[in-house]
Amino acid sequence: MDITINKQIVPKNEKEQDFTPVFKINNLNLWYGQDHALKDIKFDIPEKQVTAIIGPSGCGKSTFIKTLNRMVEMVPIVRMSGEIVYRDKNIFNAKYGVEELRTQVGMVFQKPNPFPKSIYENVAYGPRIHGIKNKKVLDEVVEKSLRGAAIWDEVKDRLNENAYGLSGGQQQRLCIARCLAIEPDVILMDEPTSALDPISTLKVEELVQELKKDYSIVIVTHNMQQAARISDRTAFFLNGEVVEYTDTSTLFSNPSDKRTEDYITGRFG
Ligand SMILES: Nc1ncnc2c1ncn2[C@@H]1O[C@H](COP(=O)(O)OP(=O)(O)OP(=O)(O)O)[C@@H](O)[C@H]1O
């Protein structure tokens, strides 16, 4: 699309975005002690799309995703500068509580980490903490969340059994259900399929495609095929910098940076 300014036709700027950002990241820097792990990160993450973060081991993918819900600050030696704006609020602003942020920005981890409780209690836990006590309401939230995570049919007859009795893939979808139960806006996923078998991986990938209708998703993955299959936009990280960030099909078919090309063609990493 061209833009008309003073009756002149101005070609569309490549950097112009045609999406609504859920996160705006401006000049984000992060250090672990002296180690400069994130360098001048600047890009916007779209609403209701899947954004993949790719790059070789140690390039800062996990560190980056954990800045978005401020989990990275649990490491005492971390220092940061710059700005992360979530829906017009600077997440580092003292007035914006970290609990509130984490209610809106949920996270699913690499290894499924259910609580040692029943399947039902795993999902009801968050809503209970947020003050929902009514059993009927909780039942509805649990069912809706398990359905949303595409695991309801597999567990509906064993809701009171311990979650540890589920397979790894089922546990991961249960953890996604637990995340959905607090009705987040954004879901962060840090290598959510790396501990899963291929069939469970496929189920989680299909689920991500469903979830993006209602949620904005950021996913760290080692697996470039996975990024190509399921994401709309991809950021390629290298040594703590974003080398390239664009729509996924362009990044994989026509990368603009030689380092991206070398990485996606397997020359390093
Ligand atoms: N808790 C920590 N304390 C000190 N340094 C850390 C810590 N976590 C990560 N780092 C360093 O920050 C850099 C980025 O690490 P990070 O785990 O974010 O990379 P990654 O791309 O997610 O790697 P991988 O793909 O192997 O998980 C690395 O140099 C790592 O050693």
From TrEMBL:
Keywords: ATP-binding, Nucleotide-binding, Transport. InterPro entries: AAA+_ATPase, ABC_transporter-like_ATP-bd, ABC_transporter-like_CS, P-loop_NTPase, PstB-like. This is Phosphate ABC transporter ATP-binding protein. It comes from Fictibacillus norfolkensis. One of its GO terms (molecular function) is ATP binding. It comes from the Bacteria. Residues 23-264 form the ABC transporter domain.
